[in-house]
Amino acid sequence: MSEIISGKSDFIKANVSNSKNDAVAFEMKFAKDLTIAQLKSKLEIITGGNAATMKLELYNGDRYVSTLDNNDAKLGFYMHSDGLRLHVVDSFASFDDEMVQKFELTNEQYEQKRDTVRNFLLQNRVGKYNEDEMRQREEKRRELAEEIQRRAELCVVGSRCQVTVSGNPTRRGVIKYNGPLDGKSGIFIGVQYDEPLGKNNGSINGKAYFECPPNYGGFVAPLSVEVGDFPPEDFDLDDEI
Description:
Elements lengths: L10 E8 L4 E9 L4 H12 L6 E7 L2 E5 L7 H4 L5 E7 H13 L3 H6 L4 H7 L7 H24 L5 E4 L7 E9 L8 E6 L9 E2 L2 E2 L8 E4 L4 E3 L14
Parallel strand pairs: 1-5
Antiparallel strand pairs: 1-2, 3-4, 3-5, 6-7, 6-12, 7-8, 8-11, 9-10
């Protein structure tokens, strides 16, 4: 059998959603020992938000659990299991909207005020008002997107592969699908595993993307897939003493 990972994982998987653009939640993994401040910095790259004004809320499905309001606390303090949802709220954008609505100011009038969050960020070159910082964020987003695209292009249907996902044993199989999934953003790789260590039969929500026996199929991000000469593991126990 594939190697069984013992002990608790140092990482946790969470779905990330963003109130700024109402994007569909997507799954990511984070180290449990990240501080909330460090987590916000990482989420800047993904969501385009601002760590200095970002608010993080934790949900179990649609049920509110808590607000991650201690920047010095570790992520593992708030999240103990996979599958919860981190919701990113751009509090700076919300504050601006409330101010404009309350005082009925035009954008030009608001920018002329000196006692606003926007003016503070502008004067101190924070977040989107720091050109160097914004260029670095954009460069990181571009590099990540290019790496995902490169890895996806290597995932040719019919190729042997090895899948490594945090918290799961390393699995081998055959690539059966490469493309989008309904209701999800990005590209996913469909794999038929050599063992029944998957979650489906190649179908999700009633739609078939490929066919395989039950519990032999799975869909993962391109970054989790390594294509190569990975022969099926030998599970013949005839020679066992």
